[in-house]
Design brief:
single chain, about 220 residues, mainly alpha
Length: about 220
């Protein structure tokens, strides 16, 4: 129980720390794509659970043991984040007048791809794919789990079951925080859905996501 509480406190503090996941969920919800925002949340938490299971099985230890495996995943993740951020920046610049058509996830918004960085529109599946890819293509998440998770698994406990339990706690905390972000975006939706505000939001979020990708690429 002491290990559970310590792990809960640690991942709780990390969940509250602003980062890539927070920016992605908040931005998707802020533009009125509620279904897609839930899909992003499900995708991120699916990735978290996958990392937890792989770590419990010892698979993610390859990321710290194999330089090549880590580098391949790092560059793939960096490329994906830079591409996603640039898509948002390009959409904000090229289609400034289309933002109003996306308020309710209309076909006009879905067709342009403006405001979401993809051409999927307000769809749960599209958001799930985006959240899952963002999480799984970040090798720092895997390295974090390799360093953290084993410390909280008792020696006499089944590693897989204990790892899934701890990962489930992380998923629950992350989902709860995402609900808060969606509620906040919903409260401010009338202001956030103004075309000028949404263009600025696209620029800020796109810059943040692309910067995460560049940072991931340049880190040693």
């Amino acid at each position: 129980m002491d290990a559970l509480w310590a792990f809960t406190l640690m991942v709780g503090l990390l969940t509250l720390t602003p980062g890539l996941d927070t920016a992605l969920v908040l931005r998707t919800a802020a533009v009125g794509h509620r279904r897609r925002a839930w899909g992003v949340i499900f995708g991120i938490q699916t990735g978290t659970l996958v990392w937890g299971v792989l770590t419990s099985l010892g698979v993610t230890a390859l990321l710290t043991a194999s330089h090549l495996a880590y580098e391949v995943l790092r560059w793939a993740g960096a490329a994906y984040l830079v591409w996603t951020g640039c898509r948002m920046l390009w959409a904000a610049r090229r289609r400034p007048g289309r933002a109003e058509g996306e308020e309710a996830g209309t076909d006009a918004g879905a067709g342009t791809g403006a405001g979401v960085g993809t051409d999927e529109g307000d769809r749960v599946l599209g958001g799930w794919r985006q959240g899952l890819a963002t999480n799984l293509l970040n090798p720092k998440v895997g390295a974090f789990y390799v360093a953290l998770l084993p410390q909280f698994i008792p020696p006499d406990a089944p590693h897989l079951a204990a790892g899934v339990l701890l990962s489930g706690i992380h998923v629950l905390l992350g989902s709860a925080w995402a609900c808060v972000l969606i509620a906040l975006a919903r409260m401010l939706r009338h202001r956030l859905q103004r075309p000028s505000v949404r263009r600025r939001l696209d620029r800020v979020t796109g810059t943040v996501i692309a910067a995460f990708g560049v940072r991931l690429a340049l880190e040693k």
